[in-house]
């Protein structure tokens, strides 16, 4: 994309005197299509709903001021319905002054929020990017067929807005999406950005490129809805869509700190779905966007994962970051625009599923108009779709994240980091790592797009150079062989896990299955000749339970998919790869191949839009036979490598579960508890009792706390803006109940030092850091 100039350069059938061949970048930005980017803030300000929200905010402020001055006397007046304005005047309370203050605040909110997207700044920035990006990126790769797909979608339905939904890795994400769209004659989107980016110079620049700024915390006081701000945000997005703007927002809410997708936040998506449901727009096309870098331009998030405070954005930090970037090499950037799907069709699909499940909850577009009776149920306090259709919003958002993650291309640094953390934690010769990369490429073929090509040995060397000596060492041993290993420090392992975690979701189900299989195996006996085994039914049932442990860590399936079917499909892959063996039962009535085909057909029926649930269940009955799955001792090393994928997350969760003891009869600030757990894991890593330095992760600790809150193990309450956590009554009264939670988490922790893994000495035992 850095060399692609659709409107300039030397082209067939173009005049040799065309100045665009001499100044291709200037010609490109001048000749690219210009759009009418209408300003939205004035329209929002004049909207009747917004004016009503101003009045409601003023009435709320009046009640608060009355209560502050009158206390309990106000309650008696409210109950009697007495509205004594004279009493307000005596106490210095003026509704008109409060209303004027809210009107001024409304103007300020819209001014700080509004975008100033314009063609001039887009053209200037495009030219600068053509010049500057090659200084630190070796290339920006996207599929031209995907661009043509978006162009055709825009031409086919010009009144239907495109909603770009990327997974967020870097501040460069939204700039590059805008750059690509602008230079391919697709309307640039308005981009939802955090107000922490409203820094001098750069804030104005981003605003001119389409950013509209949103507060990181919409409600300044916990438990109290900021009705006015929510109304402004809701109406700004709605009117932007009605005025023909495309929109871009990051469904994760912020940049991923771990390298894997975060759980989606449905706030902005709910506004867009609401605009369709109330008839403001006829439809909208959601475009999942996958972005990946060989090396992250933003640096790393090691400090935050270790529990240290994030350094806030500033002008100085931005200048320093740009200067550092221009003098570095970050390799390739890959952007994939995935197949758009219509919100109208998504709603129709989920309605069909709801009817088949016998669910009376069916989502009907335009069944309700925008109400003026305010409540606290939606994004900005109006009683509309956001609460009513919460399941719909959650399903769509999870599908978007799942599709984005599945379509993200694997870069060379992702592959190398994954191998170093799952197979070669103690390092290995370059030739051995290259052979492992060949195996990984074969495994991923047909499932993931690879962002690299060529001989694996060259790719390994290239990835080592990109990651740098701070993360990977590459030296010759005494035999003259090149030896590669991760730098044995906590910081390097945490940063390498960022790159490795791009592949973690792909192998998550396999890792859960094999970890569960080994936890269910009978104890190893030295004199046992026959291979031990586990009932397939028991394995699937237990694996389903273990999948729930990671409910806030990974999205393991689309809302339209049955997780059990995916587990069966993954089990078949493990059988094909020799990680497990099936006990052939001659009188079962089904051969192993027949059973495998039946399970695959059941999975395909589950994926199909037109399927009968009964057919799928009947076929699954074949796969639920009490087949005995046997341990394949010859592939123990391969099994261990797969179990290693989720082992660091399991270690973090176990540390959190064990730390719950300190909450006994004592509530604790959530931030203090997280610091305690991080320090505990750090000490274990130092002592060598935890071999995974990347288990030091505040994100995973928070996800585990969400899980325990979901399980009603802990209670979370807010006091003056501070989150306090305490044990639920049941677990407060019984220590044994806490032990049951620890055992439940231990079920997902691989037993590398016990069981059948301990019987075979593997070459790459994880070293202490």
UniProtKB/TrEMBL annotation:
It is found in: Membrane. It comes from Drosophila arizonae. CDD domains: LPLAT_DHAPAT-like. This is Glycerol-3-phosphate acyltransferase 1, mitochondrial isoform X2. Pfam families: Acyltransferase, GPAT_C. GO terms for molecular function: acyltransferase activity. InterPro entries: GPAT/DHAPAT (IPR022284), GPAT/DHAPAT_C (IPR045520), GPAT/DHAPAT_LPLAT (IPR041728), GPAT_PlsB (IPR028354), Plipid/glycerol_acylTrfase (IPR002123). SMART domains: PlsC (SM00563). Residues 162-294 form the Phospholipid/glycerol acyltransferase domain. The gene is LOC108611056. Belongs to the GPAT/DAPAT family. Keywords: Acyltransferase, Membrane, Transferase. Its main location: membrane. The keyword Transferase applies.
């Amino acid at each position: 994309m850095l060399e692609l100039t659709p409107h300039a350069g030397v082209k067939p059938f173009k005049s040799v005197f065309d100045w665009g061949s001499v100044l291709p970048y200037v010609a490109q930005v001048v000749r690219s299509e210009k759009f009418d980017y209408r300003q939205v803030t004035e329209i929002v300000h004049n909207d009747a709903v917004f004016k009503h929200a101003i009045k409601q905010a003023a009435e709320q402020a009046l009640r608060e001021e009355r209560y502050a001055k009158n206390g309990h006397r106000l309650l008696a007046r409210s109950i009697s319905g007495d509205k004594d304005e004279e009493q307000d005047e005596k106490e210095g309370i003026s509704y008109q002054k409060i209303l004027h203050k809210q009107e001024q605040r409304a103007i300020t909110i819209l001014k700080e929020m509004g975008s100033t997207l314009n063609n001039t700044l887009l053209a200037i920035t495009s030219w600068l990017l053509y010049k500057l990006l090659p200084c630190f990126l070796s290339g920006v790769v996207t599929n031209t067929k995907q661009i043509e797909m978006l162009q055709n979608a825009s031409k086919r339905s010009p009144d239907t807005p495109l909603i770009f939904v990327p997974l967020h890795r870097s501040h460069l994400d939204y700039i590059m999406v805008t750059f690509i769209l602008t230079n391919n004659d697709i309307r640039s989107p308005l981009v939802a950005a955090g107000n922490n980016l409203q820094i001098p110079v750069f804030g104005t620049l981003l605003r001119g490129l389409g950013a509209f700024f949103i507060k990181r915390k919409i409600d300044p006081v916990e438990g109290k809805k900021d009705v006015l701000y929510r109304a402004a945000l809701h109406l700004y997005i709605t009117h932007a869509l009605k005025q023909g703007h495309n929109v871009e927002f990051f469904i994760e809410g912020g940049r991923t700190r771990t390298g894997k997708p975060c759980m989606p936040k449905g706030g902005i998506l709910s506004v867009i779905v609401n605009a369709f449901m109330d008839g403001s727009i006829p439809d909208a096309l959601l475009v999942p966007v996958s972005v990946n870098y060989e090396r992250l331009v933003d640096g790393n998030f090691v400090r935050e994962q270790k529990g240290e405070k994030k350094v806030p954005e500033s002008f100085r930090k931005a200048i320093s970051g740009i200067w550092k970037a221009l003098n570095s090499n970050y390799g390739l950037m890959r952007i994939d625009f995935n197949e758009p799907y219509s919100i109208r069709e998504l709603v129709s699909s989920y309605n069909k599923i709801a009817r088949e499940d016998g669910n009376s909850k069916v989502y009907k577009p335009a069944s309700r108009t925008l109400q003026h009776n305010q409540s606290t149920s939606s994004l900005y306090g109006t009683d509309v779709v956001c609460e009513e259709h919460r399941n719909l919003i959650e399903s769509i958002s999870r599908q978007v994240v799942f599709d984005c993650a599945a379509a993200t291309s694997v870069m060379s640094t992702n592959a190398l980091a994954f191998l170093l953390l799952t197979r070669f934690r103690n390092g290995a010769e370059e030739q051995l790592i290259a052979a492992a990369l060949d195996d990984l490429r074969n495994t991923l073929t047909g499932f993931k797009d690879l962002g690299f090509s060529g001989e694996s040995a060259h790719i390994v060397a290239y990835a080592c150079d990109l990651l740098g000596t701070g993360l990977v060492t590459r030296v010759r041993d005494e035999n003259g062989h090149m030896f590669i290993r991760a730098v044995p420090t906590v910081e390097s392992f945490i940063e390498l896990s960022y790159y490795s975690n791009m592949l973690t979701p792909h192998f998550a189900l396999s890792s859960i299955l094999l970890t569960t299989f080994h936890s269910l195996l009978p104890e190893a006996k030295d004199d046992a000749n026959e291979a031990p085994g586990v009932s397939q039914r028991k394995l699937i049932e237990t694996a389903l339970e273990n999948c729930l442990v990671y409910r806030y860590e990974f999205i393991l399936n689309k809302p339209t998919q049955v997780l059990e079917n995916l587990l069966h499909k993954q089990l078949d892959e493990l059988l094909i790869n020799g990680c497990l063996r099936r006990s052939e039962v001659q009188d079962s009535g089904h051969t192993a191949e027949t059973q495998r085909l039946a399970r695959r057909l059941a999975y395909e029926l589950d994926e199909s839009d037109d399927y009968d649930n009964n057919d799928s269940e009947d076929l699954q009955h074949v796969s639920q036979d009490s087949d005995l799955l046997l341990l394949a001792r010859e592939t123990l090393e391969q099994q261990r490598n797969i179990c290693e994928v989720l082992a660091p997350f399991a270690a973090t969760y176990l540390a959190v579960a064990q730390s719950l003891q300190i909450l006994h009869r004592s509530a604790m600030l959530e931030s203090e508890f997280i610091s305690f757990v991080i320090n505990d894991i750090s000490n274990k890593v130092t002592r060598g009792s935890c071999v995974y330095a990347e288990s030091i992760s505040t994100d995973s600790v928070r996800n585990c706390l969400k899980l325990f809150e979901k399980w009603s193990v802990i209670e979370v309450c807010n006091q003056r803006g501070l989150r306090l956590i305490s044990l639920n009554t049941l677990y407060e009264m019984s220590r044994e109940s806490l032990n049951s939670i620890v055992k439940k988490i231990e079920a997902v922790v691989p037993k590398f030092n016990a069981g059948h893994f301990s019987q075979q000495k593997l070459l790459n035992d994880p070293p202490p850091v």
